[in-house]
């Protein structure tokens, strides 16, 4: 990315953000991480703390002045910070409005005031809601999210596209499948490992275990992001990023069990077709658009989950 020398990564101390930071630093960019460390961890970026090309600003996107200051001397923004907990919206209706929508608005204002013209945004498959076309392509519609998280991410997308058109910015919007890998701090693989570490004889699976979703390893996700930023030039570039297949919740349970060396675990199901209110039971994204530009994933969903379990168990 020759023109993108000074990159601000919001949420750069988090799971996906820290992997992105690793890649940007590897490519020789100057990187500033802006993170309030709510779920991000210093440990994930500790290798860069002494690097002159790296700066950490501990700040909150809800602090308008601080983000405006942090954006000075930046030519590309990767907006990764968010509250990514889909389940939370059912018990706290405010969190995604603040942490996702208002945070994105503050960032866009900071960009506008600092004359920064390029933004990449980490969106999600949940903007599609319960799509009736599978794999779901980027031009699927109408978009009817069923979680407050999905709604907030769709609102962020709308803010970003409208700022792009109103203030001559360029945007890359990436709608992710489930992203897994080392440093994951949430999600089904992490949950199953925690539960089995507590009780290796029993695994509670939310829903009926038949939920079928696509999982992509974070190394592939980050590879796709960098490739697509370099190789797409529209004013607004929207891409699904996912794998080419799916894996069920029960199969994930079996994979985690195998990686933990457990041979007899009783699976119990909480019942119903979805894990929680707002859960989309079937998700597979169409990735023809990114494939047509020349990037495709190598790992299956099963392999991504297996590698993640190994990494989280310290066996990679
Ligand atoms: P994460 O929780 O590890 O990362 C989020 C980061 O943002 C954390 O470092 C956190 O401290 C920071 N942050 C949160 N609120 C902030 C605020 N107000 N100000 C400054 N920093 C703040 O989550 P992740 O899984 O790495 O997700 C990264 C992005 O990818 C999110 O935007 C999420 O919605 C999106 N996404 C993730 C997945 C997935 O499967 N992990 C799937 C789809 C989309």
Q: Can you describe what's shown?
A:
- By secondary structure, this protein is an alpha/beta fold.
- The chain has two domains: 6-179 and 216-241, NAD(P)-binding Rossmann-like Domain (Rossmann fold), CATH 3.40.50; 181-214 and 245-283 and 299-312, UDP-galactose 4-epimerase, domain 1, CATH 3.90.25.10.
- It is 35% helix and 19% strand.
- It is built from nine helices and 14 strands.
- It has helices spanning 15-26, 64-70, 95-113, 148-166, 188-198, 218-231, 249-259, 288-293, 301-312; strands spanning 6-10, 30-35, 54-58, 76-79, 118-124, 170-176, 178-180, 202-205, 212-213, 215-217, 236-241, 247-248, 266-269, 282-283.
- The strands form four sheets. Strands 3-2-1-4-5-6-11 form a seven-stranded parallel beta sheet, with helices on both faces. Strands 12-9-14 form a three-stranded mixed beta sheet. Strands 7-10 form a two-stranded parallel sheet.
- Strand 1 (6-10), helix 1 (15-26) and strand 2 (30-35) form a beta-alpha-beta unit.
- Helix 3 runs parallel beside helix 4.
- The longest helix is centred in the N-terminal third of the chain and has 19 residues, at 95-113.
- Nicotinamide-adenine-dinucleotide binds at residues 10-11, 13-17, 35-40, 60-62, 80-84, 99, 103, 122, 124, 176, 178-179, 185, 187.
How is the CATH topology of the largest domain named? Answer: Rossmann fold
Low-pLDDT segments, ≥5 res: none
Structural class: alpha/beta
Task: Give the number of helices.
Answer: 9
Query: What proportion strand?
Result: 15-25%
Cofactors, ions and other ligands in the entry: nicotinamide-adenine-dinucleotide
CATH homologous superfamily grouping of the largest domain: NAD(P)-binding Rossmann-like Domain
**The top level CATH class name of the largest domain:** Alpha Beta
Tell the overall outline: globular
Q: Taking all residues together, what is the mean pLDDT?
A: 97
Q: Give helix and strand order, one letter per element, not per position.
A: EHEEHEHEHEEHEEEHEEHEEHH
Biggest β-sheet strands, sense, barrel: 7 strands, parallel
Domain module tally: 2
Return Rg in Å.
19 Å
Helix content: 25-40%
Q: End-to-end distance, in Å?
A: 30 Å
* Count of DSSP strands: 14
**Proper CATH architecture of the largest domain:** 3-Layer(aba) Sandwich
Assembly state (oligomeric) = single chain
Spatial strand order of the main sheet: 3-2-1-4-5-6-11
